[in-house]
């Protein structure tokens, strides 16, 4: 049979996509074994029934044919209004293209700004799809490593050096961050903005967790002086409104870039289902209260898990200011994050993500998603700590 393209066969270097523990946990559940799944950012509540009612009504009303490829006027205007209100940067419908979730936005933005062979930078630790997404756009994925001791915050000087050495074309940022929960402070983002301007970088800013801020303030790089014309922002209904399966997100950027991205949508997804867009527009019209209601359980659970961790001194939480995760340092056990996660799953039926799934910088850590009921979550974390203590004693 003819060969597949290297663009596809090289998506996952080393043959791993980082999701092995998640896949094994799902297989165990399918086989009838109870597993506490703390792996992916999937809400333990469904999409609000009023949003589903709006979706159902739109479908019954006939919005089941081809929708406008850039996105419906109502949804694009709702997104533009939301972005303007949250960032203070005037944003119009022409600055917005609707995508099939944030992941499609990540791929489209890299396709838009990187020619084949261009270098695209991203911060390590990273959401597991980032390097494969960049390679899928035929760009060269180069990680900027960070340090746990610094809360996994990126070093602008390191970004500048690697951008200069590689002739990079783009830089992918994610704040609030998955997997670390870090929110990049204004001084860090300002320094990165200076690098982006000096090195003529496009900044792709993944802001899908902008409603999950527990400490400090989220700042979009697009809101910084001189950055609106070189920043493409990824947004999504998935995390803010528990609409993960609806696959509706967006890109916000300069009008000329958005026009080109609309052309790309025409050649790829050909838009997002109209009844889903209508439901998303309805959801955004409800204001911030529903978003806060979706976020509040994660705020509460984060506090309870941190309280549980404070009762022991072996497993340490990396400082986290946002998002629905905690990154835990388990290096005192002598195990890698992957070995720890595999062993914990086998011994106790608790599934967490190995830090190594998110890059070299997170080795020796595990990520816990705060996505199960409070008491069950705290029980799982206490079990994790007890398991860690026994492994450390045996080391």
TrEMBL record:
Q: Which domain of life is it from?
A: Bacteria
Q: Known EC number(s)? A: 2.6.1.-
Provide this UniProt record's keywords sorted from A to Z.
Aminotransferase, Pyridoxal phosphate, Pyruvate, Transferase
Concerning CDD domains, the annotation shows:
AAT_like
Coiled coil (residue ranges): none
Keyword Phosphoprotein in annotation: no
Gene3D superfamilies, alphabetized: Aspartate Aminotransferase, domain 1 (3.90.1150.10), Type I PLP-dependent aspartate aminotransferase-like (Major domain) (3.40.640.10)
Q: List residues of the Aminotransferase class I/classII large domain.
A: 35-383
Q: For this chain's UniProt record, which GO biological process terms are given?
A: amino acid metabolic process
Q: Name one GO molecular function term.
A: pyridoxal phosphate binding
A Pfam short name: Aminotran_1_2
InterPro entries given in the database record: Aminotransferase_I/II_large, AspAT/PAT-like, NHTrfase_class1_PyrdxlP-BS, PyrdxlP-dep_Trfase, PyrdxlP-dep_Trfase_major, PyrdxlP-dep_Trfase_small
The record ties this protein, via PANTHER family, to: ASPARTATE AMINOTRANSFERASE
Protein's recorded name: Aminotransferase
Source organism per UniProt: Citreimonas salinaria
């Amino acid at each position: 049979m003819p060969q597949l393209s290297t663009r596809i066969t090289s998506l996952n270097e080393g043959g791993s996509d980082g999701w092995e523990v998640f896949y094994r946990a799902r297989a165990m559940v399918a086989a009838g074994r109870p597993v506490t799944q703390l792996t992916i950012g999937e809400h333990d509540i469904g999409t609000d029934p009023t949003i589903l009612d709006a979706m159902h009504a739109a479908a019954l009303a006939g919005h089941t044919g081809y929708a406008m490829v850039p996105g419906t006027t109502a949804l694009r205007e709702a997104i533009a209004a939301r972005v303007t209100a949250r960032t203070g940067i005037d944003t119009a419908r022409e600055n917005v293209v609707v995508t099939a979730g944030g992941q499609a936005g990540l791929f489209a933005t890299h396709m838009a700004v990187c020619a084949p062979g261009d270098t695209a930078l991203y911060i390590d630790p990273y959401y597991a799809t980032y390097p494969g997404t960049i390679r899928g756009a035929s760009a060269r994925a180069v990680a900027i490593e960070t340090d746990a001791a610094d809360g996994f915050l990126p070093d602008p000087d390191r970004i500048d050096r690697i951008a200069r050495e590689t002739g990079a074309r783009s830089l992918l940022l994610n704040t609030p961050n998955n997997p670390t929960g870090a929110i990049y402070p204004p001084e860090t983002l300002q320094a990165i903005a200076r690098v982006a301007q000096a090195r003529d970088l496009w900044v792709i800013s993944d802001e899908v967790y902008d409603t999950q801020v527990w400490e400090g303030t989220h700042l979009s790089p697009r809101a910084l002086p001189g950055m609106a014309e070189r920043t493409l922002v990824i947004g999504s209904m998935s995390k803010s409104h528990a609409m993960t399966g609806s696959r509706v997100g967006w890109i916000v950027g300069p009008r000329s870039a958005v026009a080109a991205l609309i052309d790309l949508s025409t050649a790829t997804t050909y838009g997002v289902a109209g009844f889903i867009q209508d439901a998303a527009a309805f959801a955004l019209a409800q204001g911030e209260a529903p978003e806060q209601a979706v976020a509040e359980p994660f705020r509460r659970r984060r506090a309870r898990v941190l309280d549980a961790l404070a009762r022991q001194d072996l497993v340490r939480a990396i400082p986290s200011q946002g998002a629905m995760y905690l990154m835990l340092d388990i290096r005192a056990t002598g195990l890698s994050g992957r070995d720890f996660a595999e062993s914990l799953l086998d011994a106790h039926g608790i599934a967490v993500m190995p830090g190594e799934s998110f890059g070299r910088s997170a080795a020796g850590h595990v990520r816990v998603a705060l996505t199960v009921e409070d008491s069950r979550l705290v029980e799982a974390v206490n079990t994790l700590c007890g398991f860690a203590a026994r492994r450390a004693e045996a080391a």
